[in-house]
Amino acid sequence: MKHSGPEHELKPLFQKVEPSGTTLQDRIMSQIHKESAQKERFIVKHRVGVLLVAGLLLTASTGFAAMNYQSLFNDNGDVLLEEKPLTADPVHQRSQEEQLRMERMNEIWMNEIKPGEAALIYVVPNNPHHQFDIRSNPLRVENVEQLSHMVHVPGIPLSQELIGASRTYTFQKASVSMEYKQDVYELSDEKKEALVQELRLQAQTSGQDHALMPVPVTDQFWLSSMTYVSGQNEISLSIMNNKDNEPLIASYDEDLNTTSRKININGQDVIARTYGGDVTELMWVYQEPKTKYAYHYTIGVREGVVPLEELIHIAGTLIPASDR
Questions:
Q1: What are the residue boundaries of the structural domains of the chain, listed by start?
Q2: What is the pTM of this model?
């Protein structure tokens, strides 16, 4: 995460944050009420902040030797995804004042930003460094044709169905988050300070303890999570569009007892990460040849029991054949 230097009074924080595993409301309310929430399976650093991504569930049994951490590379040997222990990059410990500000910001995020919209949030109390945050809520989509216009991976069209070895899974719903139109990191310190002053004046004029400023989004997605169903079984497929040249870092809590191994599907390296010995998800990266954008895929089981072989079969229908 980028910050202004310590010589600057203003330290705006810019984050892209998505709900992980539960609905947005469940996740935020668990923070507000300080309830005991399920630990995130891994944390992925993405361009302008910290992205929380759900570990997807799959019942499986494996008899393979496994290393704890793996990496995925492109044809030139550049790292696209790197796994690390969470202790290698500890999460920032917030002060009580900062925690109070974040709790209030989360309430505003949940209650005042509509699905498909993004905004800057400035909270007046408990904010001596005049921090502001950018937050968005994903848009729910239930029509795969509409989704295809929003989530476009060149050469890999979305499908109404995922074909397994034993059954077919039909698209049910998706959540989509779009790219921000303005890269707030590229703003000068003077523009950031002017932005904070505008937000503070807005809060003062309205008599509220906060201010919101809409952030336009583009027609390019950066994250989508889709659900496909067959009977009582639900499969989750997520795609993240990373336009940066830098690799994504997946940091895992070591207390979760996770292990990784690489498997090969259609000539493509795929990470099979197992949690507690019996829950597995598959992760791979497709780098589009022309733009070099890296599309990060994760597939697993959200509900029900699906054999690992079934999940591998589905991944094989999504991964283009490689010449490696």
A1: 24-318
A2: 0.78
